[in-house]
Specification:
It holds the Pfam family NamZ_N. This protein is about 30% helix and about 15% strand. Helix 6 packs across helix 7.
């Protein structure tokens, strides 16, 4: 671990880097803040804090659940490269939905493979893996380091649950290197309560916009005994420094091909429901999750034509056709919070509403309930719909408060 001091110095340099900075006050004076102010506000993800977790790995065989978001320091060096250089006995990597390097499309098969850069054996937990028990049994400790985006249907938190299941089953320690939730300033949407809607995109009985970091969620999974047979995982969470749930966090590395910037991440929870329809959210364009449209001029004057882009070629709604709708690219990302206004607007404008929910079953899984779809069809307003989920949401918020590591949003 001869380079621990070097990386501690790099963490110190983060105090003056732009990577992962908070943006609490967009109207603040443009003059440079004093050093103490920078120290208080600069977010330092757990992976950058090598002295906090490298000693926990000494003399142990280690497995990693990671991907392209598992980076260290201002140069965004992959955690795998850092661990290997620090002589950590890294045995394998697990990859989530979009693969180890983040270049696999949504829903596509993630195969067992070898990391081309390091030769590290790679395995998938997405969709299950018949070898997963023996893989985890071969190590002493697992590391989880994935950047979540704060929405229940983002499948990285499903991967967290599966890793926790395996660690609990085989009595292995799990170290979660925590990262900020870029939408952690809100808790909203319906709570999934019926197991018939449980799926990869709605795995936990949590709010649609859950307001947790992965470390906080891991504590909740353990504390509520959601693992099989009520087991609990031997869990260590290395916390983020200088993060609160009021913090705005612009991700240093995109979490998946269709979320290329801060605005797309902030709009994701509101627009992902469209994936239960044939409405385009801009996949196959340069602006995924920043535009919305369909092949009918009734939806608006703004037009775009989806094609094929890296990571967005096989599941592209409206491909090759002119789509009419909304241009959201000029919105202030930090001000975006979960809303039903877009889905209600497009439903109300659709000439033949019977065709709107083209994939009704998947829409219900995204929502975690069939009530939302039925309320939209019944012509309920957003205010009426919100009132219907308030009791369950209030109960969830009370449960959530027990597992918070970081100060709550105001």
């Amino acid at each position: 671990m001869g380079n621990i001091l070097l990386y501690s110095a790099i963490v110190g340099l983060l105090l003056t880097s732009a990577c992962g900075s908070t943006k609490k006050n967009a109207s603040a004076p443009s003059s440079a803040p004093d050093v103490e102010s920078v120290k208080q506000e600069t977010i330092i993800p757990a992976a950058d804090q090598l002295t906090a977790y490298l000693p926990l790995l000494k003399g142990k065989k280690v497995g990693l659940m990671g991907n392209q978001t598992s980076v260290v320091g201002p140069q965004n060096e992959h955690l795998v490269d850092v661990l290997l250089r620090e002589k950590v006995d890294l045995k394998f990597g697990f990859a989530p939905e979009h693969g180890f390097r983040g270049d696999i499309e949504r829903g596509e098969k993630v195969s067992n493979d070898v990391d081309s850069k390091t030769g590290l054996p790679l395995f998938t937990l997405y969709g299950g893996n018949e070898k997963q028990d023996s893989i985890v049994q071969s190590v002493d400790v697992m590391i989880f380091d994935l950047q979540d985006v704060g929405a229940r249907f983002y499948t990285y938190i499903t991967s967290l649950h599966r890793v926790m299941e395996l660690c609990a089953k085989h009595n292995k320690e799990l170290i979660v290197l925590d990262r900020p939730n870029p939408c952690g300033d809100q808790v909203d949407g319906p709570v999934r309560k019926d197991d018939k809607f449980k799926s990869n995109v709605s795995y936990h009985k949590i709010a649609m916009v859950h307001g947790l970091t992965v470390g906080e969620l891991a504590k909740m999974i353990n504390g509520e005994k959601w693992l099989e047979n009520g087991r609990q995982c031997k869990l260590t969470v290395v916390p983020v420094q200088n993060y609160t749930h009021d913090s705005m966090y612009d991700l240093p590395v995109i979490p998946s091909p269709s979320l290329p910037n801060h605005l797309s991440v902030r709009l994701y929870s509101s627009l992902c429901l469209f994936e239960g329809t044939d409405i385009s959210v801009g996949r196959g364009t340069d602006w995924p999750f920043q535009v919305v449209g369909f092949t009918d001029p009734v939806y608006g004057d703004f037009t775009f034509t989806p094609g094929e882009k890296a990571g967005m070629s096989k599941h592209v709604e409206g491909k090759g056709a002119i789509n009419y709708g909304l241009d959201l690219r000029g919105l202030d990302a930090d001000k975006q919070k979960f809303t039903l206004k877009y889905i209600l607007d497009f439903y109300n404008k659709m000439p033949d509403k019977s065709k709107f929910f083209a994939r009704a079953e998947f829409f219900d899984k995204l929502a975690g309930t069939d009530e939302l779809r039925k309320q939209i069809i019944a012509g309920k307003t957003e205010e009426e719909i919100r009132a219907s989920w308030k009791p369950e949401l209030d109960s969830y918020k009370k449960m959530r408060s027990k597992y918070l590591i970081y100060p709550e949003f105001k």
